[in-house]
Amino acid sequence: MNTPKFGPLSGVRVVFSAIEIAGPFAAQTLAEWGAEVIWIEHSKYADTIRVQPNYPELSRRNLYALSLNIFSEEGKEVFYDLIKTADIFIEASKGPAFASKGITDEVLWSYKKDLVIAHLSGFGQFGDDYHTNLAAYNTIAQAFSGYLIQNGDINQPMPAFPYTADYMVGLTATASCLAALHKAKATGVGESIDVCMYEVMLRVGQYYMMDYFNGGEMCPRMIKGKDPLYAGCGLYKCADGYIVFEVVGGYQVSEIFKDLGIGELIGTEEYPEGIQLISRKTSKAALFEEKLDEYFGKLNVKDALDYLKSKKIAGAKVLEVSELEGNSQYIARNSIITWENEKGKTVKGPNIMPRFKNNPCKVWRAMPGYGKDTKDILSSIGISEERINKLAEDKIINCGK
After folding, report:
1. Distance between CA atoms of residues 308 and 290, nearest Å
2. Percent of the chain with pLDDT over 70
3. Torsion sign over Cα 203, 208, 213, 214
4. Which terminus, N or C, of the chain has the lesser number of Cβ atoms within 10 Å?
5. Which of 224, 257, 70 is nearest to 154 (CA)?
6. Nearest 5°: phi and psi at 25?
7. The pLDDT of residue 400
8. What pLDDT was estimated at residue 382?
9. Which residues are catalytically annotated?
């Protein structure tokens, strides 16, 4: 496909069949790291993400677009020919949907023995029948995993946005695919990965759960954006905006206590020298918070951050999206970039992350139109022009406009 050679995954071919966010985010990440990635959309309808005005330009860059009805008999034949050339296949569906259509792991391995297969679903490839075949999205995975109930404030739980579960699942799929690919290349034997959305979010929410599982105590939700367990950690209002900071460390605690006029507490039994964090269960935690609110409420954001830096306390302004491009760190690292879409319009969005020093990555291709690369992809795997035309006539493929 004449994909340029760049990044640590140059020479790896990925095929994926998934809509919206989670599966495509994994595939897009691999494409940005240099893999040749083929995006399969159904020949009767495009990925639903295409109705969004701007996000698809970011989420589908560096990809090739193939429109194919995988589950038709003729479509399966084409799909298997494509799988012979792939290193990784990613699919996202309700439970074992591919297996139910006859496309099992074993069938795929009969065409490519060392293929890495990643199945993304809300409730996994196996389990009780009621859950396994249910549809799932970001909020469903958060709710079922015990993650959502921990977020929000003391009055009401709230899901984390935008689409936190989808992105966490995408990153999990990316990492697991590369781990499996490493093993497959060493052994010549493929792998099947069961990426279950709620299990990913179960792990993301694990921090406070361990106290419940091993003692029956569940951490309360936040109050006004502040850490539920430790005073001096979280969101604070300044005269001209919001900041976050974390008073963590013996030096940091001692210094800020002195500056707030409560330095005499350090060295007491409850607040010994070198205390690292101030538990909300301690008697003066509420006083500490009152002093912090009063002190920082009188400062502007810049002076507040300068103070925190002088005391070696980690902190940051809560930036508006409108402030990102002009931020000196964003500029220095080129964190926001531009590229052209297929129509020649300039698109702006986040740069590739992370940064590879010896094998730098790049955005080299805009989001392709629906079915744009169908003919080229099928030709590249040895399918004749005559057969391609027949497949198009039978609506097994769609070659776009």
Report:
1. 17
2. 100
3. positive
4. C
5. 224
6. -65, -40
7. 82
8. 94
9. 166
